[in-house]
Design brief:
Helices cover 40% and strands 18% of the residues. It has 497 residues and is an alpha/beta fold.
């Protein structure tokens, strides 16, 4: 059979396609786990944002898929629905499979009366999709497939959940990057790819969709598998690699050993990007940070979340940010973690969340001021009540959700208010400061990737400051007017079909 796997074109504000076009790692992993006699193609539509309809029409025409699978996040739901309608109009008999965070956490949104979605893969998809393709091929029925919801007649049936994989057993096969139908994955002009070395996290942050999908657990791949995956990414042209683990610093000793394994294998000649906890880096930075730099790590997305204790308590992220001295809690770990990273010539992508229920102008500004002073690239977001997360229940119970349009649940559109500030005011404060912080990192980017920055500087500035005009800079109109113009532009940008 012919299988076509798609990710949505919708992108995050902090990851503009002019600078970052990251592959969806799940698609390559799914492709690698479908039985080999099937013909699988994958397409990350972020590579075709300006021509989504034409690209999908061409893929359906040339590949003639029997099954189309879509990986969907919550803010991509509206686009996914339009895309499904387009595919069905082109090929009415094609089977549509929806998977990813949103279908897993809000399956009712895909099992409705429209009849456009035939199957929902909940949670980890590799084994479930493999078994589904076999069942479609052999016409054996679907009630035996764990982790699957399926349409039969006018009803949707939900099978028991599938247990998460322990990863070490080899039942999840390596990704198939050769199945990609499109190219152009870049980060600051360098070809980029993604790998994973582990899955899961044992913390219970209120904003996290991961633990709602798979529970609180942590499983790892063998280093041989990970290093082979790095080699495969390099063979396909990668010069930068984003390690997408949910929480790779959960086991610091393993992470240190992985860094050393990368060095020993001679795979430290590319740039690595990773996500990490402040507590792990602060409490083990003396040995961990030098190893990370030696292995080639350049950017670290640091889950700071917030610098204020009350906000960390609401986010359930306090324990992730605790500094320890002599076995005792010794305050917030963020500054110490940042210092270790900076001392070892790594850049901090500062993950902060502002606009929590108790936030005031002063508390939001405290976090923005911290970011201005200490982080190299801001990744400042607003609390977003994704389906079934504790944050969703908390904001709903306190009547603080002001926007139910999930296409705006992209992290940088404020869809909740605090008890003291409107959503618009919170978003305006972040938007006003965020742009100038990003500009500050341009010299470092220029030094590392001069040709790319020179070539695209105008487009990057245009994106970062969209909404602003010369009269804004000259003080002839208020920044608030420019902000409203930016929001209108952002609304138009979400229309891919």
């Amino acid at each position: 059979m012919n299988v076509l796997l798609l990710s949505m074109p919708d992108s995050f504000e902090h990851m503009p396609s002019v600078a970052i076009r990251m592959p969806n790692g799940a698609l390559a992993s799914l492709a690698g786990n479908v039985d080999r006699h099937h013909r699988v193609q994958i397409a990350d539509l972020i590579l075709a944002q300006q021509k989504v309809k034409e690209t999908v029409e061409d893929l359906v025409r040339t590949h003639s898929p029997d099954v189309v699978g879509l990986s969907v996040m919550t803010f991509q739901r509206k686009t996914a629905r339009k895309l499904i309608g387009l595919i069905k109009s082109l090929s009415p008999k094609v089977k549509i499979v929806a998977g990813g965070y949103d279908p897993s956490l809000a399956p009712e949104e895909y099992a409705g009366g429209s009849g456009l979605v035939d199957f929902i893969v909940r949670g980890e998809g590799e084994i479930t999709l493999r078994e589904l393709i076999r069942a479609i091929e052999n016409e054996t029925g679907y009630d035996h497939i764990q982790g699957l919801s399926y349409r039969s007649g006018d009803r949707f049936y939900t099978n028991p959940d599938r247990a998460v994989s322990g990863l070490e057993g080899g039942e999840i096969l390596p990704p198939d990057r050769g199945a990609r139908a499109l190219d152009g994955y870049t980060m600051l002009g360098r070809q980029v790819d993604v790998i994973e070395t582990s899955r899961g996290c044992t913390f219970d942050c209120s904003f996290c969709s991961i633990i709602e999908m798979r529970g609180r657990n942590f499983f790892t791949y063998s280093f041989d598998r990970v290093l082979d995956d790095v080699r495969d990414a390099k063979k396909h042209g990668a010069r930068s690699i984003f390690i997408v683990d949910d929480n790779i610093t959960l086991n610091v000793k393993r992470f240190e050993a992985l860094c050393q394994a990368i060095v020993d294998a001679g795979l430290n000649d590319i740039d690595y990007i990773v996500q990490g906890m402040t507590s792990a880096i602060a409490n083990h930075g003396e040995t961990l940070a030098p190893l990370m730099r030696k292995a080639g790590f350049r950017y670290v997305f640091l889950g700071i979340e917030n610098i204020l204790e009350d906000d960390l308590k609401f986010l359930r992220a306090k324990s992730k940010n605790v500094k320890r001295e002599n076995g005792q809690s010794a305050g917030n770990a963020t500054l110490k973690a940042i210092d270790y990273l900076h001392r070892n010539k790594m850049y901090v992508v500062g993950g902060l969340i502002v606009g929590n229920p108790g936030d005031t102008k002063e508390s939001v500004e405290a976090n923005l001021a911290f970011a201005r002073k200490y982080v190299d690239w801001p990744y400042i977001q607003h609390p977003t009540p994704y389906p079934r997360t504790p944050m969703n229940s908390e904001f709903r119970d306190r009547n603080l959700i002001i926007n139910e349009n999930v296409e705006e649940y992209d992290g940088t559109t404020a869809v909740v208010r605090s008890e003291h500030l409107s959503a618009e005011e919170i978003e305006f404060m972040r938007w006003r400061e965020d742009r100038w912080m990003k500009v500050r990192h341009m010299p470092q980017a220029l030094a590392h990737d001069p040709l790319f920055v020179i070539k695209t500087a105008r487009r990057m500035f245009s994106h970062t400051f969209r909404g602003m005009k010369l009269k804004t800079l000259l003080g002839l109109e208020s920044e608030r007017e420019a902000f409203h113009r930016y929001r209108r532009i952002r609304t138009l940008e979400r229309r891919y079909l």
